[in-house]
Amino acid sequence: MTLTSDSRSPDCGLGYQDLPHLMGLMTGDEKHGPAATSTLDALWVLYDRVLRVTPQTAEDPERDRFLLSKGHGPMAYYAVLTAKGFLDPALLPGFGAFDSPLGHHPDRVLLPGVEIGSGSLGHGLPLAVGTTLGLRAQGLTDSRVWVLTGDAELDEGSNHEAIAYAGAVGLDALHTVVIDNSSATHGWTGGIAARFAGEGWSAVTVDGRDHEALYEAFTTPHPGRPHAVVAVVEPKR
């Protein structure tokens, strides 16, 4: 199957306005609500307008890959996957239950469309680099890799090794979305985007609640360079 720019998830009768209701169906302890809601708009724009993957093409070698590194608050991710037809809405009330596939961290072997098991901070971006290299080695040069991280994850040294390597070898199929909710312990001279740009990335900072700004940033051309979008949202409380 050849995927095109129109090979994105269908609406399945649910839209952005339904996401708060879908998230509200997920109850229980350890919800990490702020971690989830901070990602909601970026996830929606990616799945609604950018990523070339559907429930029908979730195993297609030419699909785009999305890796949720910020996996310790997956409610928004589950809600978006449900709205796009990957998950049955009936699963949502069981979130976090013993026999539910919807864990407090997503599990790739239990859920369709989930590329990695995540939630341990600092692993997603290195995994995305490896995924991009693997696709390049297979000649799958049209498949794009997206990874969503949090600003606090950039406190982990593994990410900075990945940032440096990806920029040095020009992994232009690699895209990183950094959700900046002011929860990082350390800062970076000039801001987060400058950290990526200093290693040869294309980088831009946008309002993480503005869908048009997110879409424009996600689709900015960046030939020969990986691309980072820093999505600034309200500070974590």
Layout of helices and strands:
Layout: H1 19-24, H2 33-37, H3 40-50, E1 65-68, H4 75-83, H5 124-137, E2 145-150, H6 157-169, E3 174-180, H7 192-197, E4 202-207, H8 211-218, E5 227-232
Helix pairs in contact: 3-4, 3-8, 5-6
Walk me through the structure:
- The protein is α/β, with parallel strands linked by helices and 237 residues long.
- It contains 8 helices and 5 strands.
- It has helices at 19-24, 33-37, 40-50, 75-83, 124-137, 157-169, 192-197, 211-218; strands at 65-68, 145-150, 174-180, 202-207, 227-232.
- Helix 8 (211-218) links the parallel strand 4 (202-207) and strand 5 (227-232).
- The mean pLDDT is 90.
Please identify the structural class as seen in this structure.
alpha/beta
Helix content: 25-40%
Question: What is the C-level CATH assignment?
Answer: Alpha Beta
Total number of distinct structural domains: 1
Q: What's the name of the CATH homologous superfamily? A: Thiamin diphosphate (ThDP)-binding fold, Pyr/PP domains
Unreliable parts: none
N-to-C terminal Cα separation, in Å? 45 Å
- Give the number of DSSP strands: 5
What overall geometry do the principal axes of the alpha carbons give? globular
By DSSP (H or I, 4+ residues per run), the number of helices equals 8
Rounded to an integer, what's the Rg over CA atoms?
17 Å
**Major β-sheet strand ordering:** 1-2-3-5-4
Give the amount of beta strand, in percent.
Answer: 5-15%
Any guess at the CATH architecture?
Answer: 3-Layer(aba) Sandwich
Summarize the biggest pleated sheet: 5 strands, parallel
CATH-defined topology: Rossmann fold
Mean pLDDT: 90
Order of secondary-structure elements:
HHHEHHEHEHEHE
